[in-house]
Amino acid sequence: MSVQKIIPNVWCRGNAEQAGAYYAEVFPGASSVVEARYPSEGLLDFQRELAGEPLTVTVQIPDPRGGDSTRFTLINAGDEFSPNPSISFMINFDPLMFEGGEEAARARLDLLWRGLSDGGTELMALGEYPFSRRYGWVQDRFGVSWQLMLTDPKGDPRPFIVPSLMFGGSAQNRAGEAIDFYTSVFEDAEPGARFPYGVQTGPATPDALMFGEFRIGEQWFAVMDSGVEQSFSFTCGISLEVQCADQAEIDKLWDALSAVPEAEQCGWLADRFGVSWQIVPANMGELMARPNAYANMMKMKKIVIDDF
User: Is 280:242 a contact under the CB 8 Å cutoff?
Assistant: First the structure.
């Protein structure tokens, strides 16, 4: 069983428990558990209404092939941020996954599409495209974006769920740079395929990436430069949590990634592209169980394990 080192975190506006229950219902075999709650005292003024409420909810979505589940963390907070399509999640329905082949894969894709579309917003209609015989892009009722794709079984295998970063707005045309940067920062990382647009496409230059990918450990990530003008870009609405083995790894990643000093808080940072990361120790749950842990964490920018 591989370890999921990087965990997508979703900012929820006081409704993380409801969102977790929704995903556990929509994704076959998924589960949702409240992992931590806000303390009942010692909160900042803007957090007091959350006293005793869930702080984080863990959602586990299984791989239909019987592989490792994908873990998401839902963060209960205020209305400061919300997810947007700059980070979405590509769901690969490989006909080889399913007994019954392509027909069964299409049926599972369509079922999930109906669940995610209920109360959501269609970003690209479900249908046939040059790159896939069945594809659609939807933003669900909680603002999280999903790309459902029937994949070509002749291609290289990829995980069931792949985070996808769309570079638009202030980060336009930097997807290729991001591949090079992230694979230089993380150990055991390497670039994958790159497919440039080839011609000017909206704000995307000919050299910009219509699709690209990279790997960190056994986790794959997709990137693309937006082919249409958009005002939004990366925010804390979706962040990437990195679980570090020790303080040395925290220090190394923090120094390499952090590019916006005013964004540094409680282990959170923003990188040169605006992508939000949480650089935390793998035993964060154990540390947060210590007396006064929450109050101690609120004083930190970079997480310092010895200060809990």
Answer: yes
Name the pTM for this structure.
0.94
CATH top-level class of 6-225: alpha beta
Q: Fill in the amino acid letter for 196.
A: P
CA atoms within 13 A on the CB side of 242: 27
Q: Where are the domains of the chain?
A: 6-225
96-139 confidence digits (pLDDT tens): 888 889 999 999 999 999 999 999 999 999 999 999 999 999 99
Q: Count the Cβ atoms, other than its own, within 10 Å of residue 238.
A: 27
Determine phi and psi for 157, rounding to 5 degrees.
-65, 145
- To which residue do tokens 């873990």 refer? 71
What is the phi/psi pair of residue 128, to 5°?
-95, 135
Distance CA 213, CA 189 (A): 11
Cβ burial of 103 (10 Å; 0-12, 13-18, 19+) is exposed
Cα–Cα dist 132/106, whole Å: 12
Tokens 């229950």, residue located: 21
- What digits encode the pLDDT tens for the residues 261-278? 999 999 999 999 999 999
Rg for the chain, CA atoms, rounded: 19
